[in-house]
Write a structure and sequence with these properties.
By secondary structure, the protein is an alpha/beta fold. It has helices at residues 48-55, 78-87, 95-98, 105-115, 122-135, 152-164, 182-199, 210-213, 234-239, 244-252; strands at 4-17, 20-33, 37-41, 63-68, 71-72, 88-91, 170-174, 202-207, 219-224, 227-233, 301-303, 309-311. A hairpin with a 5-residue loop joins strand 11 (301-303) and strand 12. The chain binds iron/sulfur cluster. Residues 243-244, 281, 283-284, 287, 289-291, 294, 299, 312-314 line the site of iron/sulfur cluster.
Length: 318
């Protein structure tokens, strides 16, 4: 892949819990090309948000490498990490809870500029905030507004402006439109797309909803119980899903795939606990195609051509 901005190797994050070791992220690998979007998709509890936060080192990984711009960020000193963090930002799911209601729009957006001493005079800071507001489509009259006066879409625009304040190269977008109405979702997705083109931003876009990443991601990785079970260029994943879990997710998503129409795959059972994951293929307790081998042997994560990776015994001989 040309010009890789981020490479994740064997990234692992376990949490100690009273029920045992919780395997939140269990040895995942991927690369992200500069200026592109990787959609990270899966049910709640599959480890996608932990993956995003671990990459940003908001959570310390248990093992693995996070190579950002050629450097393993696990090996950076505190000051080097502080510097790298300017290039790596996070947009949260719920703009309301992530914005301090006691502060004005301009105070929220200017926070990282002031904290990192990017600009010093209040005139320069105000001018930069006004510029950022214009970039994300916030009216200038909202400069001194409080976030609670605004609708969800505008609040998410504040979150985006704040993330852009550091002129990042890479943003983890963690369910950025899940809390928004469908019509507003499209506006925010379009804004993120426009910003990506304007600033050559690279995104990891985390969502539980495959229909949201349709037409948004260049590649999509599907996670299940801390593992990436399938990853492919977006079009290929939608047109020719391989993994039974991906097929089930697609069959439930309102996306235009004629092959899936009327064929909704209902998965049996609940998502097993990541503190006590099944042996063999982690999906075997819910898979409609489970074979004996699946119960004991974890399938290999293999490239089936054109960057289409999958971990499933159904394709062992192919
Ligand atoms: Fe299903 Fe077996 Fe493939 Fe796992 S390895 S997804 S259980 S067929």
């Amino acid at each position: 892949m040309a010009d890789t901005i981020l490479e994740v190797k064997n990234l692992t994050k376990y949490f100690k819990t009273k029920h045992g070791m919780l395997h939140a992220v269990d040895g995942i690998n991927f690369k992200l090309a500069r200026g592109k979007t990787l959609g990270l998709v899966g049910e709640s509890g599959c480890g996608k948000s932990t993956t995003g936060r671990t990459i940003l080192r908001l959570i310390e990984p248990t093992a693995g490498e996070i190579i950002f711009e050629g450097k393993d960020i696990n090996k950076l000193s505190r000051s080097e990490l502080r510097h790298a963090r300017k290039d790596m930002q996070l947009i949260f799911q719920d703009p309301y809870s992530s914005l301090d209601p006691r502060k004005t729009v301009s105070q929220i957006i200017s926070e990282p500029i002031i904290a990192n001493k990017i600009l010093k005079t209040s005139a320069d800071i105000d001018a930069r905030v006004a510029e950022l507001m214009s970039t994300v489509g916030l009216a200038a009259r909202l400069f001194n507004a409080s976030p609670h006066e605004l609708d969800g879409g505008r609040r998410q625009r504040i979150g985006i402006a704040r993330a852009l304040a550091m002129e990042p190269k890479f943003i983890v977008c963690d369910e950025p439109v899940s809390a928004l109405d469908v019509s507003i979702q499209a506006q925010i997705l379009n804004l993120l797309k426009e910003l990506q083109a304007e600033f050559n931003l690279s995104y990891i876009f985390i969502t539980h909803d495959l229909s949201v990443v349709n037409h948004f991601s260049d590649e999509i990785a599907v996670m299940y119980l801390g593992k990436i079970v399938e990853k492919a260029p977006a079009e290929q994943l939608f047109d020719n899903p391989l993994h039974p879990y991906t097929k089930a997710l697609l069959s439930a998503a309102p996306v235009p795939n004629p092959d899936m129409k009327g064929n909704r795959i209902i998965l049996q059972g609940d998502l097993p606990s990541p503190a006590n994951p099944p042996q063999g293929c982690k999906f075997h307790t819910r898979c409609p195609h489970c074979m004996e081998v699946c119960k004991t042997v974890a399938p290999e994560y293999k490239d089936y051509g054109g960057g289409h990776y999958c971990a499933c015994h159904l394709y062992d001989k192919k």
